[in-house]
Amino acid sequence: MASAPSNRRCVELLTESIVASPLGPRAAVWESIERELGTPRKSFSLGQERRRSSLVRVAALVLVAGAGALGGRALFRAEPELATPVSPMRVVTTPPGQRASFRLPDGTSVMLGVASTLRHPMSFGVGGREVHLEGEAYFEVVHQDGRPFVVRAGDVIAEELGTEFIVRAYPEDRQARVVVREGQVAVRAADSSVATAGRVLLPGQSGRLDTDGRPVVESADTSAYFAWTEGRLVFDDIPLRDALPQLSRWFDLEFLLADSALGQMSLTATFKNQPTADALDLLAASLGMRQVRGSRTVTFYPGTGIR
Predict the structure, then answer these.
(1) Sign for the pseudo-dihedral over CA of 287, 288, 294, 299
(2) Cβ–Cβ < 8 Å for 12, 110
(3) Are the CB atoms for 8 and 98 separated by under 8 Å?
(4) I need a surface site. Which of 35, 65, 74, 266 has the fewest CB within 10 A?
(5) Helix, strand, or coil here: 129?
(6) In this structure, are residues 132 and 121 in contact, taking their beta carbons and an 8 Å threshold?
(7) What DSSP state is assigned to residue 17?
(8) SS3 of 51, please?
């Protein structure tokens, strides 16, 4: 495993760690079948060569809370109790403040964002390709005719049609959002009981679901949504209360407001590779607030200065 300083950098330096979960009943049966047949299960390698079919870059940024910190390293593990014998599941989890890069079985490249989890089959079947995300991830998808690549995130399903797109679906967000930078994305509700038609989004458009599960199409500036893949965290006229969850995941700190009214203030700032102390100074200065730092917390008060 890479050293702690390396882990804080781009995730190409991370080393894979495969940790098998305790075998459930289904997995135990499968293991016994393998022993009888004498055909051990094949392992998955991060070093698979990229397929030479046309490569379509797809970004799916899924911001969903619930990915836990794992001691400053990305954790790769098998999950046999959630899998079928044909397609065991693989789970990749990153802690707050760190990212990880790897490839899916079809050659698709993934950059997993901070405090995120990706679940995918170790081997895609002959039909479609589907992954489940909690957090954020950027995908460079190997396009395959007749085998759609589908991202499930919260209450949204986004299907790649040869494009770049982002999905945001944090539980604390009022609604999930899909943003398209290139190509087209088909968006629909994940709830099969919602009898509404999906919509196709074009470049520069975003889509969200209304209270009835119907997609609403709006114009969008894509630059801030993709900034994290370049190591930048960008806020453009965002209410502070909406920015705090992202700041917490990015810096692995808890941000508090001494007065709830401060959450209505607008935040416009860009953070890129600054030391945490410098970034906090920039944040407080841009808001015109005073900050009090604890070991794992930062509390903002009206006024300026540091204590």
Answers:
(1) negative
(2) no
(3) yes
(4) 35
(5) strand
(6) no
(7) -
(8) coil
The tokens of 246 are what? 């992202």
CA dist list (Å): 212 to 171, 177, 188, 215: 17, 15, 12, 9
> Which candidate, 90, 91, 131, 102, places its Cα nearest to that of 11?
102
Q: Which amino acid is at 182?
A: E
Residue 50: other Cβ atoms inside 10 A:
12
Q: What is the DSSP letter of 34?
A: H
Q: What is the pLDDT of residue 71?
A: 36
Q: Are 280 and 296 in contact (CB under 8 A)?
A: no
Domains detected in the chain: 4-39+53-224 (2.60.120.1440), 231-306 (3.55.50.30)
Binned at pLDDT 50, 70 and 90, residue 294 comes out as very high
Give SS3 for 84: coil
Distance from C-alpha of 281 to C-alpha of 283, rounded to nearest angstrom: 5
Query: What is the arithmetic mean of pLDDT over 178-188?
Result: 86
Structural contact between residues 137 and 130, judged by C-beta atoms closer than 8 angstroms: no
